[in-house]
Design brief:
The chain is an alpha/beta fold. The chain has 2 domains: 241 residues, Crotonobetainyl-coa:carnitine coa-transferase, domain 1 (Rossmann fold, 3-Layer(aba) Sandwich); 85 residues, formyl-coa transferase, domain 3. A 6-stranded parallel β-sheet has the order 3-2-1-4-5-6, sandwiched between helices. Strands 7-8-9 form a 3-stranded antiparallel β-sheet. Helix 1 crosses helix 7. The longest helix is centred in the middle third of the chain and has 24 residues. The two termini are 38 Å apart. InterPro entries: CoA-transferase_III_domain (IPR050483), CoA-Trfase_fam_III (IPR003673), CoA-Trfase_III_dom3_sf (IPR044855), CoA-Trfase_III_dom_1_sf (IPR023606). This is Succinyl-CoA--D-citramalate CoA-transferase. Pfam families: CoA_transf_3 (PF02515).
Length: 403
Amino acid sequence: MSKSSPEATGPLKGLRVIELGVLLAGPFCGQLLGDLGAEVIKIEPPDQGDPMRDWGPIKPKGQGLWFPIVARNKKCIVANMRKPEGQQILKDLVADADFVLENFRPGTMEKWGIGYDTLSAINPGIIMIRVSGYGQTGPSSHKAGYASVGEAMGGLRYVMGEADRMPSRAGISIGDTLAATFATIGALAALEHRRKTGRGQMVDAAIYESCFAMMESLIPDFQFGNYIRERAGSILPKIAPSNIYPASDGMLIIAANQDTVWCRLAELMGRPELAHDPRYATHIARGEHQGELDELISAWTRTQTSQSLEDICEQGGVPCGRIYRAPEMLQDEHFAARQAIIEVEHPVLGGFKMQNVFPKLSETPGNVRWTGPDMGAHTLEVLQNILGYDDTKIEALKAVNAI
């Protein structure tokens, strides 16, 4: 495990993000920008703060374990956006910022008098990143949008799970993180546009569209063939062999759907004739006989341990892999060699292991400087050092519950 430096090293060093919003779709975008070196100032309301602080199934010493990751590298301040004095803090920050990030229901920022028109009048170069369930426009834009609803509308939920039961979910909030990832891409594209023109713009990332973007040829499949994709469990229909196969002591993923790789797998199975069997010789033929082919492979894999299968496939040039959980990740030498897991000091819990910054850049790699801080931990620092507020002004803000 490597411990990261408190100094930003990524390519976005020197850029400032003002993050509003709570939970995941907006804050994960802030995490990604902070990972790449940006200074992220997270604004939380004074009553509760981000509910993500309490999320997670395990809370050692009363500490949530998700917030330290999604709020890593961020400076947390408290300011009440429902009060004019709190809104003025945002406006003052925007004057010397590069991005404003929010994931409220569309219209909320406008209701508070801090919409894009207002903020861009203060700073024409500001890039406003807006993440929502349905986008900023359209007949559904006013609705509350959660990741689960966006995943369903975007087509993702319908195809997840086993064919004989209700749709499943990914086990993570994939709709939120996909939307945040697309928001980050949009923010970086807008940054390049600003470099050329000096003008900022709005980035409108919708959860349902971010899921929909992943849906491959779903629409033309129906348009030209009246074909609707259905749930297929652990396989992709007509892509074979590529599945999870049982070992004598566990399971292994084997992906040998390419013709040449399938030939190698048949050889490893001691059944080289299968590679030339008309039922399995081509990609299309294997797709048509997917079920029976998986049974043939499973009959072989059940006679092997997971380790022996992994060794045989690796030596034979057939892609394969174990099904990892946290224990396997922490023990894996490849994770260790690439420092995919780092350890950062947490003020209460000590050494805190988490995923590193991805992707890796050769010249300006991102880094993790600190875990998600306490609520309001940086309020005075930001108000005094960045905005230049004096003690009298700060006390006046406290008196009206603006901070």
